[in-house]
Amino acid sequence: MTLPPEWNEQSFVQIVFPHNKTDWNQYLEEALETFVNIAKTISKYQKCLIITKNLVQAKSFFSHLDNLIFVQLDTNDTWSRDFGAITVQNKNEFIALDFEFNAWGKKFPYNLDNKITQKLKNTSLLELYKHKSIPFVLEGGSIDSNGNGIILTTKCLLEKNRNPDLTQNEIEKKLLEYFGATKILWLNNGYLEGDDTDSHIDTLARFVSEDTIVYQSCEDENDIHYRELKKMENELLNFTQLNGNKFKIIALPWIQAKYYLNERLPATYANFLIINGAVLVPIYDDKNDKKALEIFKNIFPKRDIIGIDCQVLLRQHGSLHCVTMQYPKIQKEF
After folding, report:
1. What is the number of structural domains in the chain?
2. This prediction's pTM
3. Could you confirm whether 156 is annotated as catalytic?
4. Are 244 and 271 within 8 A, CB to CB?
5. How far apart are the first and last CA of the chain?
6. Residues 90, 97: contact at Cβ < 8 Å?
7. Per the domain annotation, does 85 fall within a domain?
8. What is the residue range of 280's domain?
9. What are 32-84's pLDDT values in tens digits?
10. How far apart are the C-alpha atoms of 163 and 31, rounded to whole Å?
11. H or E element: which one contains 325?
């Protein structure tokens, strides 16, 4: 059993469009423009599943529907990374693990989003993925895999708003079991102001290969994040692989403080998405956008590097990776 890394070949990426009954309603047109841009970009490389409350409207945003699959479902919100299935591989079998989703500790409504994977399991999309419901609260954005037995996570999993009756050791045992992992790396430090997730790993540090981690750094000594992200950097420097070697770590540049209605927003370049043939990188009209894209070009020389303006996503305290979920490749065309 393994949790495939994101750079493995994919069948499709799931995305959920916002609607007028979500918190996006106050700037729905801007939000939809960003979601459509993400879907169009993905569809140039592979299939994209769009879950929408309004099927007619969603299709109207596209001049052609190549590589686009639409499913009409009612939803609370748009965070596919956290309520979407987490797919593991057991030899030639792929299992869509359907964990419990409680909106990061019942902070927001979640009853509809928690049922999405269950509703998808009998569709042609998931018929070749074995479905398994797991009575354990876990969000996809809280874990990252190097594809070789190591899971990277943060202490967000230990928050009492998730699985309050379990100790860290008990949670670790479950992660090792669910994902066929050998080692769990726990980050004790690192956060971004405005983040509702209690510091998901996909906002802070990510594997880009079996032995390399990229992370959100902070070079501004006057910023409130500086000390905490330095502590996180030191942790990453001391993490070891299964062979005992340390990981190569690559710093992502800091983003100037972003605000909306006087609220600090959790801007991060670590919230990128790897797809077949490309890497989609969130950008924020920041002076370091270009530098971040160059770093990713050096990391992934054989993939296209595409910047996606995610400023509107920040207003709901997330970014590019948060609104997407990939499904590993199986031998079937949809």
Report:
1. 1
2. 0.97
3. no
4. no
5. 25
6. no
7. yes
8. 10-328
9. 999 999 999 999 999 999 999 999 999 999 999 999 999 999 999 999 999 99
10. 32
11. strand 324-328
